[in-house]
Amino acid sequence: MQDHELLVNNLNKRKFVECEEGNTSGRTETLHQGSLKRPNEGVTRVVKDGYQWRKYGQKVTRDNPSPRAYYKCSFAPSCTVKKKVQKSVDDAHLLVVIYEGVHNHESMEKEPDDTSNRRLNSPMEMLKYDEALVEQMANSLRRNPDFIEDLADAISSNILEYDLF
DNA sequence: CGAGTTTGACCGGCGC
DNA sequence: GCGCCGGTCAAACTCG
């Protein structure tokens, strides 16, 4: 399933904090605020979860003061998958990603270079992200003890998969 | 020059 | 019927 792919991808990019299922038609993920939305921060441009997304709109919604961004999958013209990205109401450090639909094509997993991830911005930035990441994880885990099991399960199964590569 | 982003306008659904 | 709101479109702009 793509769930795991996304999870692993985000972990690789050091942006993933927590993931929760439970949206009706789509999936919801909460990401640590990283370079996700700002291509000019010098990291990867559009590819961050294995797919290529093209932004087609942005809106400020009522329930959340932060603008919500709308993305379509631009990797395959026939792919109608969309995703919405907005900051969490609870925690502005988190990005909530809502996926709608299912990809009808392979992901772009084979990112040409793992080296493109390599430099977030600077070692300082990485440290900052790491700190915030740990903090966020601790907080969310404290709040959601049940989540530990799911997360550990997902991570461990993916680690095993990755070991094969 | 092409691909992607920004941003204001537009449209349709829904509640009153 | 009207207004609000979320979602989408498209022209202008930016960047590599």
TrEMBL record:
SMART domains cross-referenced by the UniProt entry: WRKY
Domain of life (superkingdom): Eukaryota
Pfam family name, one: WRKY
Alphabetized GO MF terms: DNA-binding transcription factor activity; sequence-specific DNA binding
Subcellular location: Nucleus
Keyword Hydrolase carried by entry: no
Keywords: DNA-binding, Nucleus, Transcription, Transcription regulation
InterPro entries in the record: WRKY_dom, WRKY_dom_sf, WRKY_plant
Predominant subcellular localization, coarse grouping: nucleus
GO cellular component, one term: nucleus
Name of the molecule in the record: DNA-binding WRKY
Native species: Cynara cardunculus var. scolymus
